[in-house]
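Exercise 7. Given the components listed, write out the predicted structure of the assembled complex. Treat all entries as one system.
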Amino acid sequence: MAVTTELVAQVIEKIAPKSWAEVWDNVGLLVGCGSTPIERILITLDGTLEVVEEAKAYGAQLIVAHHPIIFRPLKNLRADNAAAQVPLRLLQHQIGYYAAHTNLDQSIFSSSRALAGVLGLTKIKILEESVSDLNPLLDLGEKRGYGVSGYLPRPEKLGEVWKRFLGLLSQSGLYAHPYDLAGVRLAGSLEKTVRKVVIVNGSGASFVPKALFKGADLFITGDVDHHAVLDALEGGMAVGDLGHFLSEAPMLQALYDYLSAEKALQGVEIKVSSINCSPWNS
Ligand SMILES: [Zn+2]
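Answer.
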């Protein structure tokens, strides 16, 4: 039986059901057709024009992405509308686009969990648990939610734990391609003792109050603003900002491993984009 877009969607939704996504989010198949046969899949964090061209060169019929390309209301598909360029190019090349966003963030494949593993945290708990599904068919028997909290194996000074963490990250195998540490930032006294750590991949600023409430010494996230950092420091919590891309890229490798091991998708070639990267130069 040929693999179709619909089958790929079903496989992804086994670990990240669409019903888990936030109401403001836009997940699932955003461009394409459920019955299209799939031979190659390109995995990416962002659906940029360059990534669409990469998918075309690779011969992919489907892009599986974390970030939706249609998010803010898209009011037209005009060739002179910048926001419409990616969907138009996808249609032109007959490539589908599937997004797993806040539903994937709450799954066992979240980058928060992968990063907690790198740091060797113990007693890992979900930071903000989501209510379980009303539909028992979607109840995986696994708690889900945003972010994780945990403890370092032994207390460490902030400067030491951050250096160790970045070193481990580079050896972790979580990144398909060498990553750039430009843009990685740390706020807090390097001499501060760290025991409890909270990690929220992506834009984690809104979780600062929760992390403070949980008594975290260090909050690691991917996209945090000036005032949230000041709030954290005033509450005695250091902040490590990996940048949005670096904090979420581990999900791509996890998704690649999961899809590659799935029997139903045997014969489908899959790769992680080698072009998609952080938009920041420095
Ligand atoms: Zn994100």
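Discussion: Residues 66-67, 202, 244, 248 surround zinc ion (CB under 6 Å). The CA atoms of residues 118 and 254 lie 13 Å apart.
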